[in-house]
Amino acid sequence: MPSLSFAHPAALWLLVLLVPMAIWYFKPARRREPAVRMATTEMFRYAPQTWRNRLRHLPFFLRMLAVAMVVCVLARPQSDTALTEREREGIDIMLAMDISVSMLEQDLSPNRIEAAKQVAADFVVERPSDNIGLTLFAGEAFTQCPLTADHAALLQLLAAANCELQARGVISNGTAVGMGVAAAANHLQTSQAKSKVIILLTDGENNTGDISPLTAAEAARKLGIRIYTISVGTDNSESNDESALPRIAELTGGSFYRAADSRQLRDIYGEIDRLEKSKLSAVLGQAHYEAYQPFALIAIACLLLEFVLRNLFFRRIP
Q1: Contact 213/261 with Cβ under 8 angstroms?
Q2: I need a surface site. Which of 156, 165, 168, 273 has the fewest CB within 10 A?
Q3: The total number of structural domains that make up the chain
Q4: What is the C-alpha separation between 15 and 66, in angstroms, rounded?
Q5: What is the C-alpha separation between 131 and 128, in angstroms, rounded?
Q6: What is the mean pLDDT of residues 165-191?
Q7: How does the average pLDDT of the chain come out, rounded?
Q8: 209 is a domain residue
Q9: In whole angstroms, what is the distance from residue 266 CA to residue 261 CA?
Q10: pTM reported for the whole predicted model
Q11: pLDDT in tens, 107-132
């Protein structure tokens, strides 16, 4: 529960001024008013009191309350709130995605590349505390987006990824899984995060590139990088690329998955999300917030109400 303290408690001694204010207000000499001489006041003895008579001192008490609130503002009230929030220790993640033309196959809806992009985008949205980057590979690999906390920019670059580069001959044919792993690991090399992860998604076997998948995986392992490998498509068998993908995952302490449809792919990313939860560390201490606003508002409200009552309802006729 928040507690209230004052930065300048000595200012509260000004509340003593309320005493002479009250004495002056109720001083008998001050309350002398013009009188009408009457033989007897017996006729007024049982007369009912009006609401004006009952509340005649209300404006004064409102002014007293306003002064008290102003004194409290001068004392700088502060709210001392224990910090129960937790700091989230993010994970640095590189998404390594295959964009070879075979990713246009439609065994996943609407096709492999679009299904992979959509599920990856949902994964990014669910991890706001992590630095995430994107590496694309086909016959060669390149970084589409370096590690970043700007997930809006990352999602735009992810949405722009497609298979046209290989289809138009801009990048070479083939599937360089090893190059994809190496490029992603290179961006995690200088990461200071305690947990570094690559999520590698492909639909084919490594058939080109200057670095073999296992060589790249061994280099990633030495950098403390964990790799999760995903094989997408219904035509993959354990005799081709999947013989390398499980070994990459095992070597680096990750896991291997096979996704034959969009639902399985979504479940795989969900499992990786659960496995790679950001670590939480509690923060102890107190936060101090200026809390003068309620006191100032009460003072203003009291003065306004006192002005209205004194000039409209309790106005004295000269």
Answers
A1: no
A2: 168
A3: 2
A4: 11
A5: 8
A6: 93
A7: 85
A8: yes
A9: 9
A10: 0.62
A11: 999 999 999 999 999 999 999 989 99
